[in-house]
Amino acid sequence: MKAKILVFSIVTAASVLSLNSCKQDFLTQLPQGVYDLNSLTNKKGLDGMLINAYATLDGQEGTQNAGASNWLWGSIRGGDAYKGTEPTDMVDANPVQRFEILPGGNSQLNNKWIGIWDGVGEANVVLKVLPTVKNITPAEAKVIEAEARFIRGFQHFEGKKAFGNIPFLDETVTDYKVPNTDGSNNYLNIWSKIEADFKFGYDNLPETVANIGRVNKWAAGAFLAKAYMFQNKFTEAKVIFDAIIANGKNSRGTKYDLTPNYHTNFRALTENNLETVFSIQASYGDGSNTNGNYDNTLNYPHGGSATTEKPGACCGFFQPSQSLVNSYKTDAAGLPMPGTFNATNVTSDELLASNQPFTPYAGTLDPRLDWTVGRRGIPYYDWGVHPGKDWIRKIDYGGPYSPKKNTYYKADIGSIAGTVGWGFANNALNYTPMRFADVLLMAAEAEIEIGSLTKAREYINRVRARAAASDVLNGAAPAANYLVGQYNTEFASKEAARTAVRFERKLELGMEGHRFFDLVRWGIADVEINQYLSAEGTRRVEALGGATFVKGKHEYLPMPDFAIQTSIKDGKPTLKQNPGY
Q: Are residues 308 and 452 in contact, defined by beta-carbon separation less than 8 angstroms?
């Protein structure tokens, strides 16, 4: 799935068939080799184009923070994590975590923009060529169209979440300087077009597919329902969630359910399982150094020695925040504490060297903490217990914790993980932007708004029951004092239910790139993020001290200056910058 049969270049959003990877200078670089389009108008050529469109989902080849994992854009901005490492590494990410990003000259911002439109362009190439292909059946053509439209909808959805006021480009566009405003200079609303692409997939894709990693009917439906959720269309979303929960199957035909153990979703050997709704495929040892979860290649513990081996060779980015760690504390009934979780800290070893004695936090915790965060004294998969400071690059800047969900087991080295290229880690762990747990919790939200609080509680408790059965073990014993309880009585109000499901999403989906976008769609980003920045500004003074979130501005990234400059038509840019920038 990940192998790139063809790689295409994109100029803003125009696709040019090429044998070479995309260049950063789109206006001056010409393709070194060009296919005659007629030579590709057959089933094999079309499938190669479609595979290439799928390959764009993890970003533009060889770049960081262009793909859908959104560790910088969704998790760091949402308070799950700090940038980590040290202030002089990937300096363009520093203003992102501080909400001080500017439109001009930020490489990470440019990467995200380019990655989105690269993916849109590749999907449109498939759709443009499809009518010219003669050696496929009408049924095959319908499925290919549905796959390409899903990818195009997915990429526009990414653009909508990140940049807000974007245009929509389909396969009929020839003048790529498409405005994002109407004739009155009001921003366009492209949700209906995103919905149409996902709905076409929902209506026309099969339930089972021959190749793991390709989208099926239920995955397209899940993203359609999620697009509805971003618009508060709870009635429309609930209909689809009900169908998925009752009848949905993964691409192998297995009915969706939660895996028995939480961590099954975060290991390459056990991925593409009954909880996988849609997963962006990664591979190891296929001859390409960038097919192995490249977007996360910097996000491993730093340091290590002969006595403290660790996954990865670099670089200490994406370090979980103290606020996220504190979120996993539970009360005497094993329930979360949304209002008071950050009043006291889960004990860390921040002030201690790795050779100094340390006693981990003794209070009750949700075990999802220790499948999400690497912390001192707790087993880090099969690498032994996390040693603390020896795995941290600059502890006063990035804190004492390490990411975990994106890393690999020591036993995986050589078969599905290893060190390649200039010494970065490469592993076959997929990024899964839609799990069944996500579906259940969004369904719970829809129930709260227009359905049954009892049904919402059932869905939330279903997720929590799996968490309760997912202890991290140190030998045969739990590694910490784990306690996860159920909501045993009805929610007192819609507001109480909203608080419960929103916090449950934080716990279940921590470090998976969702948090910031959830806060924005709920309309509470300014409150939640400023509370986070206030707390973390005293803990991580150099990284976050004095940072603030501005309502009405920071919900969306600025459009890059280069994009606006290259949109000029008749002396005026066709792209209008987002408010506040």
A: no
Structure tokens at 150: 């899903």
Q: Minimal CA–CA distance to 545: which of 558, 559, 535?
A: 535
Least confident range of 294-303, 307-316, 318-327, 433-442 = 307-316
- 329's CB contacts (< 8 A; 6+ apart) are 336, 337, 341, 346, 363, 364, 365, 366
Do 297 and 426 touch, CB atoms closer than 8 A?
A: yes
Mean pLDDT of the chain: 92
315 preceded by cis ω (within 30°)? yes
Could you tell me the CA-to-CA distances from 381 to 115, 349, 477 in Å, in that order? 32, 19, 15
Tokens of 402: 């390490």
Residues 6+ apart with CB under 8 A from 494: 448, 449, 453
Residues 450, 456, 459, 463, Cα dihedral to 10°: 120
Q: CA–CA separation, 193 vs 165, rounded Å? A: 14
Q: Kindly give the pairing relationship between strand 477-478 and strand 568-569.
A: unpaired
- CA 216 to chain CA mean position, Å: 19
What does the alpha-carbon distance between residue 286 and residue 5 come to, in Å, rounded to a whole number?
A: 13
What does the block give as tokens for 365?
Answer: 């915790």
Query: Whole-structure pTM over 0.90, yes or no?
Result: yes
Angle formed by the axes of helices 191-204 and 217-229, to 10°?
160
Q: What angle do CA 322, 389, 421 make, to 5 degrees?
A: 100
The interaxial angle of helices 138-163 and 107-129, nearest 10 deg, is: 160
Summarised one tens digit per residue, pLDDT across range 246-284 is: 999 999 999 999 999 999 999 999 999 999 999 999 999
**Which residues have CB under 8 Å from 120's CB, separation 6+?**
13, 152, 155, 156, 159, 169
